[in-house]
Give the backbone structure.
Amino acid sequence: MKLLVCGGAGFIGSNFVRLRIAESDDQIIVLDKLTYAGRRENLADLDGNPQFLGLQHGAIEDADAVATAVEGVDAIVNFAAETHVDRSIAEPDAFVVTNGQGTYTLLEAARREQLRYVQVSTDEVYGSIDEGSFTEQSPLKPSSPYSATKTGADLLVESYFHTFDLSAAIARGSNNYGPYQYPEKLIPLMILNAMHGDPLPVYGDGLQVRNWLYVEDFGRGIGHVLDHGVAGEAYNVGGPDECTNMEVVRRIIELTGASDDLIEHVTDRPGHDRRYSLASDKLKALGWSPQTGFAEGLESTVNWYRDNPTWWESIRSGDYREYYARQYGRELG
Ligand code: NAD
Ligand code: DAU
């Protein structure tokens, strides 16, 4: 197959492109706007690989850019999105444009060219759950502007299946972690702050629970939905382990040798979802299962950040400093 991977220069997209090239004969072209979260460096090791057809710089809401990118492709996998909940609370505009208008623009192209389409979605569309796990039948009840725009995108995808018979499926992942994750997210933020002796800002009591999924396991799950998923269906792709944010932070402290004194409880996120948990039996029935446990995945993630300072030094010395000061009310050390 020839795949168009939108948002392939971001965290999960770049890991997916690398994995898919290693594990299939597919050829891949990437369309990416290269926002603060999208980086050419994330794909640099694939330059010269005959299966990697290159990166087209452009936005998914730009119909002309999309028309060029889809020429000759068999399928679209859409990772492109504004993804950070805190940014969606501070400035929702870009979330509506990219996650809403952008998804619509891709769906129109897929419909016109009769392409297979996979939408990369999130457990956040279901909202928060105190006990048990969400199935694909659970009602959609998003809490943040981020998750509301992702839910709108999922509904649009389903409508293109029902109305236009588009061969579209949805992969809903739980919280990912691994190499190349931008350090605004919990795990890389805590790893880099711990390595630098900066405070570790825990929102509220830190007893919120997340269902952690190693990024390669999500990549294989999305590949499974692409190859075997039934059109019109959504598939949960949940991680094997759940833990509280405090447990995550304490494990990072152990792995980096930082001091417990760095932990600082700060003002909670407005509308903060307490717990996410996915039941993934539907995708498991198609042969997928997560391979990496949280202890193993977290250790290799800490090692990756330790071994790749050139990747994060340019981020921590750039615009990220301003974002950090705005979000946390203090300068990064
Ligand atoms: P990310 O923020 O690291 O990357 C997003 C990518 O999309 C970047 O390369 C960025 O440049 C690109 N992009 C943003 N706006 C664009 C636009 N208008 N046009 C083209 N490209 C654009 O995000 P991520 O964590 O890799 O998430 C990828 C996808 O997976 C998203 O759809 C997200 O909702 C979903 N998801 C993420 C997680 C998670 O834990 N990170 C879990 C489940 C689902
Ligand atoms: O669940 C899937 C979702 O996971 C994806 O759809 C989103 O794109 C992705 O950003 C992520 O959302 P979360 O809000 O769960 O991830 P985040 O890393 O921002 O936060 C994880 C938890 O850690 C959450 O309970 C908030 C908390 N947190 C986060 C940050 C950045 C802190 O306590 N302190 C922090 O500084």
